[in-house]
Amino acid sequence: MQVPLAWMIGAMLATAMLAWSRPVGMPGWARPGGLVFLGLALGASFSGPVLAAVTSALPVMLLGGLLAILSGLVVARLFTRLAGTDHQTGFFCAVPGGILVMAMLAQEAKANVATVTLAQTMRVLVVVLSFPPLLGWLAPHGDYAEFTAARLPFWWPGLLAMAAAGLALAFPLRRLGIANPWMLGPCFLAIGLAATGHLPSSVPVPLVDAAQVAMGATLGTRLTRSFLLASQRLAIASILAAVVLSLLLTVLAVLVAWASGLPVAAMILGLAPGGMPEMALTAKALELGVPLVLGFHLTRTVLCNLLVGPIHRLGVRFGLL
């Protein structure tokens, strides 16, 4: 069986094995550079008809984002009890909003940022190691024709021009504090070009594979002995909470897919509590409607930025956190 995200998982595990016994680092530009080309590759899948199909599913995406946040609220109580953290920190540890987003929100709320970072990292690790192989083996493959665009030929000058323009868009997003600017800037650029029929080039598969290696190796460098053993109770609680959250969101995804008529496997990936780049890459590897999956995760990211802070403040005011 061919494992999706093999380049990412392999690089992550190999780097983690090295990081266990010695200091390991990655060039600071490796992950951002990989995300630029990943963003272009994902955005290129949004032709005009595909963008229209994804837009028509916006109500379901909003529902999916809300269900993910509410599921995190439910799991937060379990996590707090298992990890022994305070309720506020447990809340930011459990909501599947992305490592950077939840760390920034936790800092604003004066929660324990180190604990939140560890818990969110372990959640992404659990999802990356479980969802791609399980979906590749078990997931039903529906009809994704309306969410699939024709692939354009590769042209070096066009690709380099897109990469430069996408990088230029990423810098202002970074200054605004937007999570994943290196991916979102190029992705939005490619979506605009693809939807209007002006996309100059596709992104070759080797570049997407290289992006996987950069992302996996960067994640692996965090899995040092001190990081994993500093709080074994916290690490175990994070893994258990991630498993429970994954099962809960998978059940909800199947129910929402049945009610909305959207493909089940794409819904499972769209609601999965993994990071946006990792889940979009999984959809690309398995050909499970990349634009639809990416749309779900973009919607969740926006909702987390808008709602998690106010939900936290309301929880504190009414004594729930």
TrEMBL record:
Keyword Transmembrane helix set for record: yes
Keyword Transmembrane helix on entry: yes
Transmembrane intervals: 35-54, 61-83, 113-134, 154-173, 180-199, 235-268
Pfam families: AbrB
GO cellular component terms, semicolon-separated: membrane
InterPro entries the UniProt entry points to: AbrB_dup, AbrB_fam
Biological process annotations from GO: regulation of gene expression
Keywords associated with the record: Membrane, Transmembrane, Transmembrane helix
Superkingdom per UniProt: Bacteria
Name used for this protein in its record: AbrB family transcriptional regulator
Natural source organism: Siccirubricoccus deserti
